[in-house]
Amino acid sequence: MRILAAAALAAAAGCAPFAAPPPPPPAPDEQRFACADGSELRARFVGDHVDVVTRQGAFVLTRQPSASGFYFSDGARGLRGQGDEVRWEFGRALPVVCHRQR
User: Fold this and answer.
1) Where residue 59 sits, what CATH number does that domain have?
2) Global pTM?
């Protein structure tokens, strides 16, 4: 009888529920933009930051307060936008308007 109880307990322990693995993080939202100056801008939106790749280099910008749309900056560069249009701000140069490619 004890052997039967021990076997039942061991079988129950093997069938105990386990915690499911956490879901994978959401895929980053990567987008390409064609800019008015003929350049291309790639942006990968990930939570509170955006990874930007332009002909000037690759940059990580953090989310900043914005009245509408979005604004990311690292102090020297910025990416503002709403809908399919963004403005790439690089240093003291005039912002470049870019439109999302589909």
Assistant:
1) 2.40.128
2) 0.71
